[in-house]
Amino acid sequence: MRWWLAPLLSAVAWSPIRGGLRPTPPPVGDSVDDCAACHPAQTEQWRRSRHGTASSNAMFRASWGRDPDGWCLGCHEPLVRGQEALIGAAAAPGHDRAATGVGEGVSCAVCHLEDGLILTSGEPTARAREAHAVRVVPDLGDAMCARCHEFPFQNHTPKGPFTLGDEPAQATFSEWKMSSAAARGERCASCHLPDGDHDFVGAHRGDLWKGLLKVSVSADGGDATVTLRGALPHAVPTGDPFRRLELRLCGDSRCRDVVGVAEFRKVYAPDATTWRLRSDTTLPAGDASSTRRTVAISAPPVAWELWLMYGERVLEPGLPAAEVGRRVDAGSF
Ligand code: HEC
Ligand code: HEC
Ligand code: HEC
Ligand code: HEC
Ligand code: HEC
After folding, report:
1. How far apart are CA 266 and CA 241, in angstroms?
2. d(CA 18, CA 300)
3. How many angstroms separate the alpha carbon of residue 110 from the centre of ligand 1?
4. 105, 241, 302, 332: least CB-packed within 10 angstroms?
5. Pocket of ligand 2 (CB under 6 A)
6. Are 30 and 79 a contacting pair, CB within 8 Å?
7. Is residue 64 packed enough to be buried (19+ CB in 10 Å), middle (13-18) or exposed (0-12)?
8. Which tens digit of pLDDT belongs to each residue from 34-57?
């Protein structure tokens, strides 16, 4: 035996005795109700986040109503109990229907519970170890997110079996992984869980946008050229293939009269096997990236508004305004 192993071995020999003095914490259940009493702040924040409504918000319900594929639930309602409530008991034979907390979306347990252990990103406090058994997962705030924020389109297999294709549908994780933000150690959690805030600020709420994007417009006769510049950790928009930015050019200062619209988005079309990217005018990740579009205008613009539109255009007429999109910036000439 090499001499430096000795202190290590003695530490191992002692740990069961020390472990034995500590009462084993009770197991924690997988419903949000099992965390809420001890973690009221995170629970309240999470409830209003898009993770908290991932299977219940009007946008998802409208989209899933058109395409009610069980595949979707693997990310929007990952716990079997909730899936059962949405698509029937047949989907999950033998599961305990009496359990509560159905329809919780991307719930606490989805990110934090594995093998009966609570996953945490940093060294847990003594109080945390007393309350529940804990496992440290250093990449909980970045690589873990890739489970749902990085995946390809499905193949067109109407009669099954279900297979995935080779075209990325969402690539937020790899966009970030290759960015200088990642190299500087800015994890997904640094921006989307600031100080542990479980609102998951991003597209629907928060002002992560502030100072991030610069808009410039030059008008020339019947055309306007719009340029977006930014310093970004991933593409904007990223994520859902239907997301788009609209730069609305306005004929009046309150933007009642829209004289032209420049869209920044990805466009896909089907081929024989799956969906293919046909064009991409999103703002790419990078410290000094840009994207440009030229659009026809019906009158000289005096102001502009930048809107983030969340989903598929055909769903918009049936949705409440807050589910359609929001204005993220504005200016005048
Ligand atoms: C989408 C994944 C995800 C979901 C859902 C989620 N968390 Fe977290 N949570 C995290 C990450 C990531 C961290 C670590 C943040 C970091 O490393 O900066 C964290 C940190 C925490 C912490 C440590 C203290 C803090 O605030 O930083 C507690 C407590 C916690 N979460 C409780 C909860 C509870 C309770 C729920 C459900 C109501 C929940 N989380 C839902 C990802 C999630
Ligand atoms: C009986 C109370 C209790 C229950 C139930 C409970 N926790 Fe905790 N949890 C605590 C306490 C106490 C801490 C330590 C807080 C501190 O040190 O400030 C903690 C800490 C944590 C941490 C941070 C660990 C660290 O220190 O890095 C996470 C993450 C966490 N809990 C998640 C959960 C989740 C998810 C659930 C539900 C599945 C849950 N907890 C249920 C009491 C509880
Ligand atoms: C189990 C799947 C899953 C995991 C794991 C997951 N997410 Fe999500 N996330 C989703 C889904 C689904 C949505 C969209 C929900 C909706 O709006 O319908 C979403 C939406 C978001 C949004 C958009 C919020 C908005 O305002 O629209 C952000 C930001 C986000 N996630 C960050 C994270 C981060 C950071 C992590 C890792 C700590 C993470 N997610 C882990 C499934 C997941
Ligand atoms: C340096 C800060 C920063 C980091 C790091 C970061 N993001 Fe973002 N994220 C933003 C900003 C700013 C937005 C708002 C712009 C937008 O909606 O695209 C955003 C938006 C989003 C959205 C909403 C989608 C959309 O297109 O509107 C999702 C989902 C998301 N981020 C996930 C992630 C994930 C997952 C990671 C890690 C792999 C990550 N982000 C890393 C700043 C960050
Ligand atoms: C592998 C995981 C995964 C699968 C499978 C998946 N989604 Fe999502 N979905 C996400 C994530 C992550 C987001 C958030 C991205 C963003 O913010 O742009 C999202 C966003 C959405 C949004 C936009 C929600 C919003 O808040 O604006 C809709 C609608 C949606 N998904 C519908 C579906 C439908 C319908 C299916 C099945 C045909 C599906 N998704 C399959 C992960 C998934």
Report:
1. 7
2. 76
3. 10
4. 332
5. 28, 34-35, 38-39, 108-109, 112-113, 118, 120, 122, 124-125, 127-128, 131-132, 134
6. yes
7. middle
8. 999 999 999 999 999 999 999 999
